[in-house]
Amino acid sequence: MTSNKYDKDLVEDLKSLHQVLTKNYHCEDDLFQEYLAIGKKLFALETGIVSRIENEEYKILSYSSPLAGLENNQVFPLQDTYCREVFEKMDTVAFPHVGSVQRMCNHPVYVNMKLESYISTPIFVNDEIFGTINFTDRSIRLEGFTSHQLELIEIMAKTIGRFLEAKIYKEKLKSANETISRFVGVVAHDLRNPLGSILSLSELVLEETKENMTREYITLVEEAATYSIDMVDTILGLSAIESGKIQIIKTENSVDSLVKNSWKTVNHLALKKLIKHQVIGEDITFTFDKERMKQVFCNLYTNAIKFSNNESKITTRWECKGDMIVIIVEDEGVGMTPQQMSEIFDVSKSTSTVGTNGETGTGYGLLLVSKIISLHNGEIDVESTEGSGTKFIISLPISNDKSED
Q: What is the Cα–Cα distance from 239 to 174, expressed in whole angstroms?
């Protein structure tokens, strides 16, 4: 190919690609189909595929081909595809004549489909391989692939990667905005009643002189104020975690002290329902943020008390399993449905449910719990049967040599 012919072809190819690059796509499949169509034209190959590579599997996300047997979401073992070569090199691969490459002659794709020419490059999303964009043909490509054709397919892959990154970022931003709006709405609504009660009941206290009435009003004021403070604490905790400003400072502390001090904080709630607390386990020291972990157990105990019946029992027990400590908080309350269990740590599904004695809450306490546990490199699971109580299982590393931000 002469230099002038090469330059002319390059300009024409760039013009064609530019038309695709400058479009605004709302759907990723529309983007994939346009890129596959332009790629088939640019490289004069009959089949184009955008793939997803994950866990040693190759999935067809979108394709354009006259070949029978291809389907969207079709999955193959990665090792049985030409794109295995791309995945191993993490770079562009081009075979003008697959049959002339000795290691490829017995490849399943070549044996079964006789795809002779192939060009492919990886798609990276957030610096990790997402999949590939590749083009193949049953004909040998006698003229080979030029350097500018290799550059063109790489431009296409980079643009697809940027589109997918933007989509992920947009979804995260949308979720964050929805969470903020949802939470602010809950707070705005729920704060109005307890704070209004504080004002109204305080005025009544000044007007009443009988001691028994005064005690009753003060109790109501205390309940409303406690609810408001709990809500504000939850807001502050979630806000600090979501903004990345929370500082986790781990020191070696006693699990027995953690459990008993946390229960002491919420014991006044348990006394109202005559709920007893049973502690089972020999004392163990492990590393955790004392303040944040107390938030975890106060939330778990408050939740357990809220959904427990009068004169029932809440049990906390723990044991070591390898390098982890497993702490279980179990109540004898109303339990949860499978759907409720699947949604309790989901920020988009968190809702407040009234307790057995009409107790209220924001519905975000367990979300805060899960985030603090995660910051400690731990896990929290829930087991429950409707009508038969709930069990929260927390697994935490026993030791950690450094503090984390």
A: 17
CATH number, position 139: 3.30.450.40
Domain termination site, one of 135, 170, 205: 170
| Helix (H) and strand (E) counts in the chain | 10, 13
In terms of residue numbers, what domain contains 398? 247-405
Question: Is residue 121 situated within a structural domain?
Answer: yes
The tens digit of pLDDT for each residue in 53-109 reads: 999 999 999 999 999 989 999 999 999 999 999 999 999 999 999 999 999 999 999
How far is the C-alpha of 357 from the C-alpha of 37, rounded, in Å? 64
Is residue 237 scored above 90 in pLDDT? no
One domain for residues 151 and 290:
no
pTM of the model: 0.49
Q: Is residue 117 part of a domain?
A: yes
Reported residue count of the chain is 405
Of 170, 187, 215, the one marking the end of a domain is: 170
3-state class of 31 per DSSP?
A: helix
User: Could you please report the per-residue DSSP string of 279-325?
Assistant: EES---EEEE-HHHHHHHHHHHHHHHHHTSPTT-EEEEEEEEETTEE
Per-residue pLDDT, 3: 46
